[in-house]
Amino acid sequence: MSAAEPTRILILGGGFAGMYAAMQFEKTLARDPDVEVTMVNRENFFLFTPMLHEVAASDLDLTTIVNPARKMLKRVNFFAGEVEGIDLPSKQVRVSHGFEGHEHTLRYDHLVVGLGSITNFYNLPGLEQRALTMKSLGDAITLRNHLIAQLEEADSECCRFKHPLLTFVVAGGGFAGVETIAGVNDFVRESLHAYPHLTESMLRVVLVHPGPVILPELGEKLGAYAQKKLTERKVEILVNTRVEGVSEEAIELSNGTTLEANTLVWTAGTSPNPLMESIPCEKERGRLKVNRFMEVPDWPGVWALGDCAAVPDPKTGKTCPPTAQHALRQGKVLAGNIQAEIRGGRKKPFEFSTVGQLAAIGKRTGVANILGVNFSGFFAWWLWRTIYLSKLPRFEKKVRVALDWTLDILFSKDLVQFLTVRAPSVSRSEEDPPVRAVSEVVARRG
Predict the structure, then answer these.
(1) Which residues, 6 or more positions from 376, have their beta carbon under 8 angstroms from its beta carbon?
(2) pLDDT tens digits for range 160-177
(3) What angle do CA 387, 388, 389 make, to 5 degrees?
(4) Total tally of structural domains belonging to the chain
(5) Which of 205, 204, 180, 200 is nearest to 190 (CA)?
(6) pTM of the predicted model, to two decimals?
(7) Which helix (H) or strand (E) holds 389?
(8) CB neighbours of residue 429 within 10 Å
(9) Do 286 and 254 reside in the same domain of the chain?
(10) Contact, 120 vs 243, CB < 8 A?
(11) Residues 161, 258: one domain?
(12) Rg of the Cα atoms in the chain
């Protein structure tokens, strides 16, 4: 490599893992003129996914939990586009962008793969075509619009079949599913005051979970507490039950019953990004196997982290769980290891034990396990908001979220649908047809 050519570091993916690696490079290697750091991501923003259900439930405004990548990264180059292919032997990545999918080839010396995971529908009939998901900002906005549309339609006097419109089903009793069902339940019940033809007895909110108790990550005790609280708020919880398929009329369950519902939110399965299949290296359940420094064996200069990587956990002998708190710390450690590789120094193995896990279950209550100690109720909810607010990047967004939360206490839910449709328009000649039409009517009547 000539002296004029910089060392190229290419980061694929702008989730917690990729973004925190880039932010660490901002403070270190990206300052050096002989190092070029570039991030590639589909969206031009970083999404704070732990608060995603609050956007769907109208607790937060649409853009308060997203940070523009170009404001977060001043020294790291940003490319808004899709990763189309990864060529490890040639050290090249093929990307596309723009309205016509214009392609570029980006070369690298160090490649950071942090492409995350996608929703897995497990080939269940009708699911991909009819189920809603909760992985992106667009998903949260779509769910919010969908909930409002169901209420609007059910409230109309000519609506004969209200039951499917007012039955809301969430599949999956993990963190995403429980927080989503809690948010949906609060939203639709608190919105009823605006719909004179609807009553609370018409609503049916159902959580379908394949295990014996929801929130298994938090243990049986907290899971049972969350289950009890949600049941008290009229959420039906079907445990040891799976969704078998979805038709236009109903949702089929493994217990032999069907639910007549227009709404199914699927949070019960994820899979590593499909691009991992094309990478010629060892994998574990679809995730790239890496060593304790997050290097991909047999491919010098290739690193992987986050949901798409099987990062070994030396304390358990297993792989690290795909959580945000692991991903952001992996990003920081990996950036330091690449710096050590380029500048010289000792690489640091990734070692981290889960500090705690929290879930909001609606009505200003929550469940939490912090350093092995269980919390529940209002204090756990306050912990949830305090901790996640502290983790939200940029002071501006922290203020906006805190303000939205304050306003949420004082005012009712916002029922505005955010539809991306153009306003009505017309194309006419210079002569004004409405005026001409009025004059013709007057002439005929005369």
Answers:
(1) 222, 225, 226, 365, 366, 367, 368
(2) 889 999 999 999 999 999
(3) 90
(4) 2
(5) 200
(6) 0.91
(7) helix 378-391
(8) 6
(9) no
(10) no
(11) yes
(12) 25
